[in-house]
From TrEMBL:
Reaction catalysed by this enzyme: ATP + protein L-histidine = ADP + protein N-phospho-L-histidine
Top enzyme category: transferase
Chain segments annotated as transmembrane: 12-34, 80-103
Protein topology in the membrane: Multi-pass membrane protein
Record-linked InterPro entries: HAMP_dom (IPR003660), HATPase_C_sf (IPR036890), HATPase_dom (IPR003594), His_kinase_dom (IPR005467), HisK_dim/P_dom (IPR003661), HisK_dim/P_sf (IPR036097), Sig_transdc_His_kin-like_C (IPR004358), TCS_sensor_his_kinase (IPR050428)
Domain HAMP: start-end pairs: 104-157
EC number: 2.7.13.3
CDD domains per record: HAMP (cd06225), HATPase (cd00075), HisKA (cd00082)
Protein name: histidine kinase
Signal peptide: none
Amino acid sequence: MRIRTVRARFTALYGVVFFLSGAVLLAIAGGVALSPTRVSTVAPGPEPAPAGSALTQAQTQIAWLQRQLTEQQAANTRQLLAGAAIALAVMAVVSIVLGRVIAGHVLRPLRTITAATRRITADNLHERLAVPGPADEVKDLADTIDELLERLEDSFAAQRRFVADASHELRTPLTTMRAALDVAMAKPEPAPPRTVVLADRLRTELDEIDRLLEGLLALARAQHGELPDRTTVSLAGLVSESVAARAPDIAARGLTVHEALGGDLPVRGSRALLGRMVENIIDNAIRHNHDRGWIRVATADDGGTGHLVVETGGEILDPRQVAGLARPFRRLGADRTGTGDGTGLGLSIVAAVATAHGGALDLRARPDGGLRVAVSLPLAVAVPA
């Protein structure tokens, strides 16, 4: 069995080192205990030799005593080695347990660093590990990760500022171009038919670019967490308003809308961004649908969390492609999603707004065909007056 964790490797290392050191100690002790003992005898001085029978009895008694002493020494040695072996086995188990405890204590700061690093994502790069303790290798690692997070935060912030600034700067030439086009078309003399067609096409393209810039601005604000106008709004109310405002588009495509709105679902946040989130979900359901299709809109309260679920029918979609729709400029092919127009920012804005409000977006391809868009948001305490 392969040992995968550092703690298990440390435990095995501590146990093996202790066991080997104990085995060497036991071998040395056993070698000393089993080494032959030299017995020196002192020859007695010249004395009268005792009678033959008495000498034989004495020699026999001495030999018996020597055998008894040798057997006793061997028994003591075996008992000593057995006790040492049992002690070694017990201490091996104890060393493994203590090794695991010590390894866990040594690796505890690393587990803390790992858990904290996993919690930090692109949406909370401002958090830091801030590991306390002496200036050792673990603290050096934590400080290095904090420095990396700081650089990442600066990079993400610079990217979001660039998107916002670029979107703002591009609005001025777009406004100038639209004004120049309107002035040219407003001249008293009638314009040629081709010029009128070209002007209409330019207006359409300018409107599309304007929607793209507006989407980039909303995405940048949501990703940057800019919620200056926090208030308590009704999520169900936003859904009803968005569906009612798009009644002409729904009727134009012959779509059937099934609404199941449960309660007001008060949500604390930016009304503008939350409204944009709901509008993008409804627009996505209308745009990427079949003529005479259906839309199912439902809201529910799940123990302090509000859920908005919008489902549409259609062809069976690839779940792998659906999972990437929350990223900017990701769209499915026009042959699979109806008209195929749009900027590709709708669901990415939904995901960013939901995250900025402490919620999440869940996209799933329906088994029977079509798309399921679900947003979960934490509910506020009270509904606005």
